[in-house]
Amino acid sequence: MPDDPLRPWTLEGFTERFLAWVDLETIDEHISRTVDEWIDTRAADPYHGATEEPRVEGLWWVKIPGTLHKGGDYIAICSYWINRDEHSVRCDNFGSAPWTVS
Amino acid sequence: MTAPANAVVKSLTDRRLDVDAPAVHHLLYLCQGHHLGWFAEPLFAEPILATDRGPHVEFDPGEDIRLPNRELNTIGYVLSRYGNLLVRDLATLIRAQSPYQLAEAGRQPGQTAHISVDVLRQHFAAANAVERAETGISEEAVAQLVAGARERLNDPLSVDTPQVRERMRARFADHAR
Fold first, then answer.
1. pTM for this one?
2. Which domains does chain A have, with CATH numbers?
């Protein structure tokens, strides 16, 4: 059967990693909802808005849009592995990062 | 690994069946540029030529080579970022870049000119640095996020099925009450 380039990517571990992050930090409900919706976007295109992490081959990270919190000084970020051959994306970690308007 | 260009073309067209021939050559230029910018080594061995019709790569059909994940990710990124652009938009983008302009400067109509790999690497490395800074996220914050990433690869994780996602939403709903 030919490979279908438009089929959704298989996501792995985003739910568990996200819950672990929420347990560590106090996250507002609207941030949780935004991240939940953002996770779905990775199944459509994990490269969208992503930056490759040059120190770790295969690892990418993203600033999650609409997740400013702690007074607008921090934003949610997420790192994940993309395996294009297997058409799969494995979550590595969630976190909050200080955000500077450039 | 530096692959033959035909392996890159195969990956480009496998994933986007509507890619037509002129677009393939423009996307090859962008794949080569981004790969050089990230890893300082070429994605494919063949030179890129500036021609009357834009960038052009001469490649043989050749044997089928399986590309490593790093190379496949460069192609995936380029398809995600540029794959929906029209050929004329790709051409406008590339013709505005210094590697293409430098090659064009010494080229007569009807002739071809090599696009320098070194100039491509410098251009895309500088562009990457600018884009990286524009994220507004510090290197330290990213380093903190990814610290221990290789070790975490050993953690058993579940596939995010609709059922798993629903359980997560139920948990948040409980918290919100």
1. 0.91
2. 10-98 (3.30.2310.20)
